[in-house]
Design a protein that fits this description.
2 domains; binds D-mannonic acid; 11 strands; three-stranded mixed β-sheet; Rossmann fold; five-stranded parallel β-sheet; globular; alpha/beta; binds 1,4-dihydronicotinamide adenine dinucleotide
Length: about 500
């Protein structure tokens, strides 16, 4: 039988080893609204902010908002916004109760309430983890997709927005009309130049509303870039049950994370910010090289392992990494294709970074599902693989692993696995991608590869013309169809160094 839910009144009864908020939560006032209050925000930005609130920066409390569903609100509000951050590794478990989040709004229940919250003068930062697809952009070009259904809806119903862009621009419109200052919009999503991208699509969207408003927004907001890194798998009921046994109460909002965390932020805030650097974040003038290294080495490997690992029958990343040939493949990819595509700073120990990534992927205490990482590939692949691929094609460098990865992604989005079982493909372009498979797979590997490389929303206009890439992907498609992913990995990468 489930025990009492975590809440303010039982904090002091929790086991002594559980770290509790070391401040009076009643003294904290909101300064941040976070859109997309999912697992990652609670395990990353909110954790850094918790440290600063505990250090006395009490006007940086967080109010969360979901633009999609009431789930996290229903988990957090009955718990007074409290949740457990559970660090899990082969070295053990550490639990910290986070108190930085005071409330959660559910936008579809009352869009006007969220617009008014975002328009409150004390809100100085609006941060986002809305997934790569939340920016309503064209992944290949990085520009706003004006035909995106949410953009069309929001332009027709500006007081009832659905998209993050609609809410942000709507709130800024209210602030402008009321003579209030703007705010900083902080993307914490895995996108390259996420600050520039966000600033671009915000102004492109605002121009569709009102040119003068767009000009005001450009002058009265900042959109700093960030590189964010902490592996945070979706929490399972087994995780919650295990935590309940440890804590003696039920926490429906618990998040699971690795001990490692990194946050690199461009220091460009309109109306101040928490001193996150005193909690371990790094403020820099230029985030780009940090982004490239992380997105291409960590996320590029993650997605390659997700599609090939899933098709090889492995449920989690740690399961994939336990197969020696996959373990070798991951490091081989990092060393030969991803790293050589980046101008790595001389003082950066990339070998140590690569070794740390392998160790992080091997963490058996975290059950990071290949299926979860495989989500939204059409929105992820451009920044995780295609930048690397374009570099290697331009320099006549190696493309063996990335062409293998693309072939596995094509097989994955066909929505049928190697045993003929259905794959639940979660991707905003899933229907279009499956239609490509259904239409061209019967015509053979070359036709299928050609159709995908010509799919401009993901691949843009250039990659279809590559004389190297097309045969490389087609060749892998034929091998994978003949022998399956695991056999291909074992025979082709089992002895790589
Ligand atoms: P999650 O599933 O727990 O939360 C996703 C959030 O995005 C939810 O609040 C959901 O409502 C919102 N969302 C989804 N589609 C949206 C849309 N079209 N418009 C507006 N909001 C939308 O996922 P999690 O783990 O919090 O990850 C979220 C993002 O954080 C990732 O997509 C990635 O960009 C970033 N991230 C995640 C890491 C992780 O290991 N989980 C690590 C580094 C970055
Ligand atoms: C993962 C990332 O789900 C995915 O796409 O590759 O969320 C990954 O866990 C983080 O970027 C790690 O910082």
């Amino acid at each position: 039988m489930s025990q009492e839910r975590l809440n303010n009144s039982i904090l002091e009864n929790l086991p002594p080893e559980v770290i509790k908020p070391a401040y009076d939560r009643n003294e904290v006032t909101p300064g941040i609204v976070h859109l997309g209050i999912g697992a990652f925000h609670r395990a990353h930005q909110a954790w850094y902010t918790e440290n600063r609130i505990a250090a006395g920066e009490k006007d940086w409390g967080i109010i969360g908002a979901s633009l999609r569903s009431p789930g996290v609100r229903d988990q957090l509000v009955p718990q007074n916004g409290l949740y457990s951050l559970v660090e899990k590794s082969n070295a053990g478990t550490k639990v910290q109760i986070i108190g930085a989040v005071s409330d959660v709004f559910v936008a579809p229940e009352s869009p006007s309430q969220l617009l008014e919250l975002l328009a409150r003068e004390e809100i100085r930062i609006v941060s986002l983890t809305i997934t790569e697809k939340g920016y309503c952009h064209d992944p290949a070009s990085g520009n706003l997709n004006p035909k995106h259904p949410d953009v069309v809806q929001d332009l027709e119903n500006p007081e009832q927005p659905k998209s993050a862009l609609g809410f942000i621009v709507g709130a800024l419109k209210l602030r402008k009309e009321r003579g209030l200052p703007g705010f900083t919009v902080l993307s914490c999503d895995n996108l390259p130049s996420n600050g520039k991208l966000l600033g671009r699509v915000l102004v492109q969207y605002a121009k569709l509303v009102d040119a003068e408003l767009a000009a005001w927004i450009a002058q009265n907001t900042t959109t700093p870039a960030t590189m964010v890194d902490r592996i945070v798998p979706a929490t399972t009921d087994a995780d919650r049950d295990e935590l309940e046994a440890l804590m003696g109460c039920r926490d429906e909002a618990a998040v699971m994370a690795e001990p490692f965390s990194q946050w690199v932020v461009e220091d460009n805030f309109l109306r101040g910010r928490p001193e996150w650097d005193k909690a371990g974040a790094t403020f820099v003038d230029d985030v780009e090289v940090y982004e490239l290294i992380k997105l291409r080495l960590l996320n590029g490997s993650h997605s390659m392992l997700a599609y090939s690992g899933y098709l090889a029958g492995f449920e989690t990343v740690a399961d994939v990494m336990a197969e020696p040939a996959f373990n070798k493949l991951a490091l081989h990819f990092m060393k030969t294709e991803a790293t050589t595509s980046i101008d790595v700073p001389a003082d950066f120990d990339v070998a140590a970074y690569q070794a740390e990534l392998i160790e992080r992927f091997e963490n058996r205490a975290l059950r990071h599902r290949t299926w979860q990482i495989a989500m939204d590939g059409s929105q992820k692949i451009p920044q995780r693989w295609l930048g690397t691929l374009r570099h290697q094609l331009d320099k006549n460098g190696p493309i063996e692993v990335l062409s293998f990865a693309l072939a596995n992604w094509i097989r994955y989005v066909s929505a049928v696995d190697e045993s003929g079982n259905a794959i639940e493909v979660s991707d905003p372009l899933a229907a279009e991608l499956k239609a490509l498979c259904d239409r061209y797979k019967p015509e053979g590997a070359k036709a299928l590869a050609e159709a995908f490389l010509a799919f401009t929303p993901v691949f843009g206009e250039d990659l279809r013309n590559s004389e190297r890439l097309l045969p490389a992907v087609a060749d892998w498609l034929e091998k994978l169809a003949e022998r399956g992913t695991l056999a291909c990995v074992q025979s082709s990468f089992g002895t790589v160094e």
